[in-house]
Amino acid sequence: MDIGTMAQAEFQHVAAQARDLGRKMWNVCHFHNLPQWLQDNDFLHTGHRPPLNSFQACFQSIFRIHTETGNIWTHLLGCIAFFVMTLYFASRPEEELSFQDKLVFIIYFIGAITCMGFSFVFHTVHCHSETVGKLFSKLDYCGIAILIMGSFVPWLYYGFYCEPYSWMLYLVLIVALGMVAMVVALWDKFSDPGLRPLRAGVFTTFGLIGVIPALHYGAVEGFFSNFTLISLGWLLLMAFLYISGALLYALRVPERFFPGKCDLLFQSHQIFHVLVILAAFVHYHGITKMAEYRLSKGECEVRPAVV
Ligand SMILES: [Zn+2]
After folding, report:
1. Which amino acid positions bind Zn(2+), per UniProt (predicted)?
2. Which of 6, 14, 43, 115 has a CA-to-CA distance to 142 between 20 and 30 Å?
3. Whole-prediction pTM
4. Could you report the per-residue pLDDT of 203-255, keeping only the tens digit for each?
5. Residue 285 in marked binding region
């Protein structure tokens, strides 16, 4: 190796070390110092991560304080909680919980894990680079559609327990709409900061499609029967939590009223994440009550056979 090549190799080595050091040594910055692709919410003034260009640095940033720390941890913990619940349900003996009952609950849990897992990863790697940020924001939105689809499964299953054709019809409708929501989410412009209300609107509308089977269900069971009040009551509370979260997210409240004061804590996105977790647990509680009630009633009088 001649001296020129050695010097070049040494230079590359030193440059790589300097880059590594730069990644470890990064400082949070002001909104105006961010590149345009990272400028998402101008009501958050300071504490932003700069572009890190390294997955390792992004994942290490989980343990540092910046505008995304709260968003990362809320959904990381939510994801772990639902993962533990999945293991618990899967380990129940057959006499306690039949295979079908386990399955419908676990499908819901997988929806929650996917949504919160994608969200946690998105918030972690969002500042990697424009391409990575865009790709993971699409996965984040697809996760929301998957959570909504998964939430319908146990609710429809127990709600139309003795009418399997109805619940399957609704399920096909929900899966088809979920696919449409995902295709919309894959559209490149969907993650633009200005389209926040559209994003909130698409997912809220998708969730509100549930009004149709809920009305059908109320008409069959009687709107004021005990079972209807239990199941629709919890469903309404869940809808209230999700819609409140979507509104805060779309309007960027409270940081809109306190610009620069919610940079690290109490920003709308964190509140939205917490409301999603609460809504997911409320839904879990609601479907547990529905399952208990339905299973305590015994077999259906006439239940058409399904494959
Ligand atoms: Zn989020």
Report:
1. 123, 269, 273
2. 43
3. 0.88
4. 999 999 999 999 998 888 888 887 788 778 888 999 999 999 999 999 999 99
5. no
